[in-house]
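Friendly challenge for the regulars: who can give me the structure tokens for this chain first? No prize, just bragging rights.
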Amino acid sequence: MNRCSALGFLSVRFRHSREIYPSAAHYLFVIMPAFSFDTVLIQRPGLLANTVDGETILMRLHPATYYGLAGTAHHIWQLLAQPRSGRAICSHLESVYTVDPDTCRIQVEQFLETLAAEDLLCVVASAAA
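First reply, four minutes later:
Bragging rights claimed.
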């Protein structure tokens, strides 16, 4: 098992070209769908993605934005190549890393919300009400 005290999602970098869309963050927040920890999510199709030195580099042309996902963020992005819920992601991470379940849940929820706010995820199936 890998040891980590925190999952290290702060390794996500966002770069926006403000000339193309000056208020992209506000716009993406407005259109972000609501989801729960049990909602099944997947990577948004059509993103340009590549792995370089263990880091996922994502590019979106409109608005012109690139993202760098390293460490656990890279791992989660790879998991989201197939439909998964936040709960399933945490279950997997807890089997790979030494991490407190509550810490894992909080950080995975925050990371998924960030990806959703950047319009990088699609909802495959909503959680049962």
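Residues 1-32 have pLDDT under 50 and may be disordered. Residues 8-124 form a domain with the Outer Surface Protein A; domain 3 fold (CATH 3.90.930.50). Your move, everyone else.
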